[in-house]
Structures are given as structure tokens and as C-alpha cells.
Amino acid sequence: MMQVRSVLAAVLALFSLLALSGNAQTPLPPRETPRTFTAFAQVETHRLRLVNAKDGAIQVSQDGGKNWTLLGRVIVPANTCVQGYLASGYAPLSSVAATAVHGLRIRVGDLGSAYPKLIAVLPREFMQTPDRFGGHVAGESGIYTNIPVGQSIFRELSPYAGSEVFRQDDDGTLTPLPINYEPQPDDVFIIVVKRPENPLVKVDFENAPGGAVTVTYADGTSKVVTTVLKPVYGVGRYDGCSYTGVGGLNTSHMGVITVSTAPVTTSKLFEGTGNERRGGFQIQPSYHNSQSPEAWAASVMVLGSKKKQREPELEGTPPLFFGHFDLAWIKNDPTHSWRTEIRIKNGPWRPMLTAVGSKPKALMGVTAVRLVRDKQADKGWLAARIETQRKRYQIQSLLLARAGKIPVRRGDINIDAPVNDPRVRFVAFYVDGAFRGITNTAPFNLSWNTTENPDGEYVVEAREQDENNRPLRTTRTKVWVDNKGEVKG
Q1: Which residues span the domain enclosing 411?
Q2: Which of 32-46, 51-65, 131-145 has the lowest mean pLDDT?
Q3: Which candidate, 189, 158, 116, 210, places its Cα nearest to that of 324?
Q4: 8 A C-beta contact, residue 285 and residue 313
Q5: Exposed, middle or buried, 380 (CB in 10 Å: 0-12/13-18/19+)?
Q6: Are 7 and 155 found together in one domain?
Q7: Among candidates 481, 361, 431, which has minimal Cα distance to 59?
Q8: DSSP calls for 369-403
Q9: How far apart are CA 251 and CA 98, in angstroms?
Q10: What's the structural domain count of the chain?
């Protein structure tokens, strides 16, 4: 009877999943967040999907989760959470606490703690911690990917600080990560990326004590949101800046905006080794800065008021430190990119200067700093960027398929599970982490019509379970679906 119920539950889950693949978007559950600021209207731009398994799919959707495009794969999954850094405590539970060209941080657990638990998503260049690394070390809490630093989900497809994060069940249900969450094998994460309905297009900082910080929105309205407590005078060695680009946003989180002053490196060495290639400055709210080892550093602009230095004020709040900055910076498309301009001695606005290394006086004479973006990531622009990233990954995989290193499949095929364990009672089948079916009958296999999927790379899984639905073994096979017959040989 237990077996029948298990199979029936799986069949119902499959029907639910199929129902979710229709016209309706996957519904988002209501969220309770410990925010105290006034909510602002948002528009969903895309969703990111990550499967926490070796070769797990990293995908993007622009239609609420109905269709997904492969961007890359997980090399090493996360198997634990680690204690976060101070600013992650300003983030809502189950949200993106930080977005950066060299990694994303997701807050879980320890609600109300100043140092909550985190998991991270990291690019391939940060599979190991670089020398002289000053940031948060993910360790076994990291989901290490084959996506390059400063590209794709670490650039124009990046979420905003505060983006909601969910775990997706086999039937498509999305649930926030619980307080006591620990990452499990094959967990599927969904990051829902929403931009402000009335986004920022410009932020002006008067680089002087008491200087105004003025934001301008897409509808043309402007307002002063805070003041400069301490100007920025120089630049420092901030992680990931060697992959960011001069004037690009390197990091946006609940207590820091980091601007790069360094060009994108062509070196194959890890950041922090060889000649110094990092350079940038930070913008921080006063309370967070007062708790930081970099308090009042020459390379940090401090915002807020002296009387509020003893408690959070701007930390984790829009528009500067929540929900308004992605990392879009495309060298040949400055109008869609966040870029930094400066005024020297009240002269005309000019592009950010280039400075590498620790230079405490590099910005002396800069009287104003501006973050500006002429156009937002509209659907057409975003779709073009997704296609660029898709092609970049698919070309690499297609070459492997043509070389015979990835099996090529087309039409109706059987997915076979090589079961040789007498304890196996069920085998569940997945394609790129999406549930396809379950069987309790030997030989354990499933028919898959590849024409239901676009051509490209997939990972097919057979997950073996015992009579109590406990996992025993997972077999993964990477295949190339080629319904058009483009792969020769």
C-alpha cells in the first residue's frame, strides 16, 4: 500500500507539473519580510533557476517559469550554510543579500541575527579562494558554477539585492527557504528578479561633507535621500574589480555599493596574484561603516548623519541599498549599463578615471560622483543578452557533441536506470532537475520524446529509492538533443 501511495503521489505531482507548464506563471507564495520601509512597485524581468547538484542546470526564464534557457552548469554543489557578514543581517530571510560580479549571497536562517547564515553562488574563477581575498569565504556553502566571473548571472542577468529566493518542489510549488534551512542534494532554487516599476536612472553624490545625495527616477522626479558624511578620496583593492570594468558596478548589497576603477583583466592568473589588477571605491551607510574594519577609509564614501551612526538607518533600504541596482555593464552598450561619472573641481562630467591598487589620494579633487544608466533592461534588450549567453555556452557543448564526448539523442528514446541494488523499489527520472516520471517496475526506464524540448544540452538523472522513498543512488548522463540532425558523424 505504501508503494501504491508513493507512486500515486508522484503521478499527481507529474500532472501538477504539466499543468504548470501551460499559460499561467508559477504562482509566488505570499512573503513576510522584516522590512520597515515603504514598499515600491516592481516588475518581474526574469527568473533564475539553479539545481544544487553536480552538472545541475543554471537557467533563466522570461515568462514566469514556463520556458527555460540553459546558461551553464554547477560544478560543485553546496552542502551546508556558513555564517554571513554583518550587512547580510539587513537582508530579508530567503533573499539575495548581495549581488556581485564575483558571486551572489543568499540569506537563510537566524532571523533577527546580525550575522545570519548564507549560501553562495560563485563563478568558475572563484572555485578556490584567491590570494589576498578580503571578502566572504563561501567554502562548502558555495554553489560553484562554470559561468565566468562578470558574465551572465554575475552581470546583466544578475538579481537585485533583496530579490526573493525560493525552493521548487517536484510539482512546481515554490516555498521560501525556512529559518533552519540547510542545502540538500538536488534542491532547486528559483530567484525571482524584479526591477522597480519606476527605476533609478541617476544618482548624484556631492563629494564633500554635508553634500547632497540626489536620486532621479525614470519618470523624471528627483529628491535628496541623504547626505555625504565623509567624501571619498582614493581607491583600494576590492575583490572582483579586476573583472568589472572602469566605472562599472562591482557589488550591490545591503550595506555597500562598490564601483570599479580597474579595467577588465586579460591575465590568466587568479586575482590577487602577480601584478595588482584590482581597484575601486565603496559607498557605505554610516552605521555599517562604523562597524567595519574600513571605517573612514580614504577609499570609502560614507552616507548618513552622525547622530544615526549608532544604529542602522540607510542599511538594507531603497533606493541605495535595496532593490535598485543590478550589475549591467556592457562595454559596447553604455546606454543600458550602470556607469560612473565624476566631476573634478566642479568641471564637466567625465568618465570614471582608471586607477589600480591602493591609492588613497587618487580621487582628490573629485567634487561629485554620479551613477547613471540611460535605459533599463527592457525585455527586448534582456532577451538579446540571454541569447548571447546561451550561444556562448551552447557552442562549447556542441563542439563536445560533435567530437563524440557527449552522446547525441533524438526522437523517442528510453532513459534506462542501471539498477543492481536489491533495495531499489522506485526510480524517479529527471531532466535538468525537472521531474519527468517514476516507476516501480523492472527494468526501470522511462520513455522521453526529445522533440518536446529545444535542441541543446541536457542532464538526464535516474534517482534510485528504497521502499521508504529514501535515496540510494543517482545516475547522471549528459546528452545533446539534436532533433534537427545538425550533429554529423
Answers
A1: 406-481
A2: 32-46
A3: 158
A4: yes
A5: exposed
A6: yes
A7: 431
A8: EEEE-SS---HHHHHHHHHHHHHHHHHHHHHHHHT
A9: 7
A10: 3
Distance CA 1, CA 425 (A): 13
With respect to residue 302, please indicate whether it lies within any of the assigned structural domains.
yes
- Residues paired with 115 in a beta bridge: none
* 1-42 confidence digits (pLDDT tens): 334 334 434 433 333 333 333 334 555 555 444 444 557 899
422: which DSSP letter? T
How many Cα atoms sit within 13 Å of 436 on the Cβ side?
Answer: 21
- Whose cell is 548623519? That residue is 305
How would DSSP label each residue in 45-60?
Answer: EEEEEEE-STT-EEEE
**Burial of 219 by CB count in 10 Å (0-12 exposed, 13-18 middle, 19+ buried)?**
exposed
Amino acid at 21: S
- Confirm whether pTM is higher than 0.85: yes
Do residues 87 and 206 share a domain?
no
pLDDT mean over 114-141: 89
Taking the C-alpha atoms of residue 105 and residue 270, their distance in angstroms, rounded to an integer, is 21
Mapped onto helix, strand or coil, the DSSP state of residue 210 is coil
Q: How many CB atoms lie within 10 A of CB 256?
A: 25
Question: Distance between CA atoms of 64 and 49, rounded to whole angstroms?
Answer: 11
Where do the DSSP E strands lie in 137-206?
142-145, 164-168, 174-176, 188-196, 200-206
- Do 309 and 173 share a structural domain? no
> Which three cell numbers mark 375?
535605459
- The three cell numbers of residue 431 are 531532466
- The C-alpha angle 148, 429, 176, rounded to 5 degrees, equals 60
d(CA 476, CA 463): 9
Same domain, yes or no, for 250 and 151? no
Whose grid coordinates read 532577451?
A: 383
**CATH code, 468:** 2.60.40.10
Residues 230 and 309 in one domain: yes
* C-beta separation of 100 from 250 below 8 A: yes
Strands annotated E in 34-187: 42-51, 57-61, 69-76, 82-83, 95-100, 103-108, 117-122, 142-145, 164-168, 174-176
